[in-house]
Amino acid sequence: MKNNHSKSEDKHQRIIKAALKVFAKKGFYNSRVSEIAKEAEVADGTIYLYFKNKDDILISVFETEMMKMISNMKKELSKCHDPVEKIRIFAFQHLNMITENQEWAEVAQVELRQSSKFMREYVKDHYTDYINIFAYIIREGQEKGIFKEGINTGIAKRAFFGALDEMGRYWVLSRSKRYSVEESSEQISDMFIEGVMK
Amino acid sequence: MKNNHSKSEDKHQRIIKAALKVFAKKGFYNSRVSEIAKEAEVADGTIYLYFKNKDDILISVFETEMMKMISNMKKELSKCHDPVEKIRIFAFQHLNMITENQEWAEVAQVELRQSSKFMREYVKDHYTDYINIFAYIIREGQEKGIFKEGINTGIAKRAFFGALDEMGRYWVLSRSKRYSVEESSEQISDMFIEGVMK
Amino acid sequence: MKNNHSKSEDKHQRIIKAALKVFAKKGFYNSRVSEIAKEAEVADGTIYLYFKNKDDILISVFETEMMKMISNMKKELSKCHDPVEKIRIFAFQHLNMITENQEWAEVAQVELRQSSKFMREYVKDHYTDYINIFAYIIREGQEKGIFKEGINTGIAKRAFFGALDEMGRYWVLSRSKRYSVEESSEQISDMFIEGVMK
Amino acid sequence: MKNNHSKSEDKHQRIIKAALKVFAKKGFYNSRVSEIAKEAEVADGTIYLYFKNKDDILISVFETEMMKMISNMKKELSKCHDPVEKIRIFAFQHLNMITENQEWAEVAQVELRQSSKFMREYVKDHYTDYINIFAYIIREGQEKGIFKEGINTGIAKRAFFGALDEMGRYWVLSRSKRYSVEESSEQISDMFIEGVMK
DNA sequence: CATGAATGAGTCTTCATTCAT
DNA sequence: TATGAATGAAGACTCATTCAT
Question: Angle A33-40/A6-26 helices, nearest 10 degrees?
Answer without folding.
Answer: 130
